[in-house]
Amino acid sequence: MSHPLRILVVDDSKVARTVVTGLIRNRRPEVSFLEAGDGRSALALALAERPDLSILDINMPDMTGLMVAEELRRQAPELRIAILTANVQDATRAKAEALQVPLFRKPAKGEVIDDILKLLAP
User: Fold this and answer.
1) Which of 49, 67, 84, 89 is a good FRET partner for 102, with 20 to 30 A between their CA atoms?
2) CA-based diameter of the chain, in Å?
């Protein structure tokens, strides 16, 4: 029997985390959530818990989401990662592409969450 899906939601805004987890819960009620409000906590949690998917904001204290993604790619390349951000500058997009991490634009809406959840497909 497989374990229930676990998704790590990382954003320095508690409101943003609540919106994302709520949208996912509406679509996938079986999912359990891990949350972090800064990059260092996100990195530690992702490495310790190995969630099925990590959804990272970019602009956060300590470490940006791109820094977290880069370190996860180095230490746990098998982990699925998505960036969900309002920061969609060309340099940001290029860095995400170089890390092979899909980038999704905030605000978190149903269609965006649906696209992110497609990353869980085998």
Assistant:
1) 49
2) 43
The pLDDT value given to residue 87 = 78
The three-class DSSP label of residue 31 is: coil
Specify whether the CB–CB gap between 34 and 49 falls below 8 A: yes
> What pLDDT, in 10s, does the model give residues 23-63?
999 999 999 999 999 999 999 999 999 999 999 999 998 89
Which residues have C-beta within 8 Å of that of residue 46, sequence separation ≥ 6?
8, 54, 68, 72, 76, 79
- Closest to 80 measured CA to CA, from 46, 110, 53, 117: 53
Kindly report the CATH class assigned to 6-111. alpha beta
Is 1 a residue whose pLDDT tops 60? no
The C-alpha atoms of residue 33 and residue 4 are separated, in whole angstroms, by 10
Q: Where are the domains of the chain?
A: 6-111
The answer to whether 121 and 6 have CB atoms below 8 angstroms apart is: no
